[in-house]
Structure to design on (91 residues):
């Protein structure tokens, strides 16, 4: 019972890490982008970042890459990712 109940939490955490690794591939490990065509996210306001992710997902801010990426994110993912990059974490 206890094990079964905790499976979704583990699965969600694993999904979050996989998604975050995808973000880092483009936006950089800490959100400091190495590519001139990709914006840096490091130290950007968390509220701004999560609002942009929601806008990509809703179609309010269309982008051929980010609209597809944001479609995969839950509201909780967006908040966690916004917090991660706003704090400039990672190596
Ligand atoms: C394939 C490369 C790629 C991946 C993967 C990717 N992004 Fe992006 N991201 C971009 C590009 C390019 C833009 C600029 C879009 C535009 O011009 O509007 C962008 C824009 C953004 C913005 C808006 C920044 C701003 O200053 O307004 C946020 C926030 C963002 N990405 C977060 C994420 C997160 C979180 C993930 C992972 C879930 C992610 N991105 C994955 C390429 C990527």
């Amino acid at each position: 019972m206890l094990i079964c109940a905790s499976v979704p939490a583990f699965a969600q955490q694993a999904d979050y890490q996989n998604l975050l690794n995808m973000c880092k591939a483009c936006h950089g490990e800490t959100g400091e982008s190495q590519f001139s065509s990709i914006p840096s996210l490091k130290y950007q306001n968390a509220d701004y970042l999560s609002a942009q992710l929601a806008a990509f997902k809703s179609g309010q801010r269309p982008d051929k890459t980010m609209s597809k990426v944001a479609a995969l994110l839950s509201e909780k993912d967006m908040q966690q990712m916004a917090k991660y990059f706003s704090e400039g974490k990672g190596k």
